[in-house]
Prior knowledge:
Structural class: mainly alpha
Largest sheet: none
Distance between the termini: 50 Å
Number of domains: 1
CATH superfamily: MetI-like
Order of helices and strands: HHHHHHHH
Amino acid sequence: MNFSFLPKYYQFFISGTGYTLFISALTVVFGLMGGLVLALMKTSKNKVLKSFAVAYIEFIRGTPLLIQLYIVYYGISDLPMLAAGVIAMSINSAAYIAEIIRAGIGAVDKGQMEAARSLGMPVFLTYKEIIIPQAMKNILPALGNEFIVLIKESAIVSVIGIHDLMYNTDTVRGNTFIAFEPLVIAALIYFVLTFTLSKLLGKVERGMRVSD
C-alpha cells in the first residue's frame, strides 16, 4: 500500500469532501421542498395535479440519475456545473422524498383532518398546522436516511466536472499514477461521513421516541 501522495494531495480530499457535503445539503433542502409539493399534489383530489405528480414521480424513479444529470447539464445552456448538479439531484431526490412524505401523511389519523374541517379550518391551514408537523415527525428518520444516500450518490456529479470528492480523487490518481490507494482514502471518507450521520440520526430517533 502506497500512501506517499497524502502529504502533497490531502487538500484535494478535504476540499472534495466539502463540495460533497455542500451539494448533498442543498439537494436535501430543495428536494424536501419539491417532495412536499409533490406529496400534497399526489394526495390532492384535483385529478390534474395528482396525475402530474404521479407521472413525475414514476418517470424520475424509472430513469437513471446519470441521464437526468446529463439532460439538465446539456439541456440548459450556460448553466454552471454546480447548479446543474444540484438541480439534477434535487429533481431526483424530490421524487423519492415525495413518496416518504406521502406515506407520512397517510399515517396520520384521518380523524384529525375531519375534526379540523368540522371546526371550519381551511384545508391548507389544516395541513400546515396539524397534518404536516405530525407527518414530518414520523418521517424524520427516513429523511435522514435519504441524506445519507445522497452523500453517496453525489459522486455522480463528478462526470460533469464538479470538484467533489470523487472528482478530486480521480485527479489525484491521474497526477500520481497511483490507481488504488486514493480510492481507499475516498471510500474511508464516505464511510466516516455516512457512519457519523447514521449514528446522529439514531440518537435523534431515540430522543423522539422518549419524547413520545
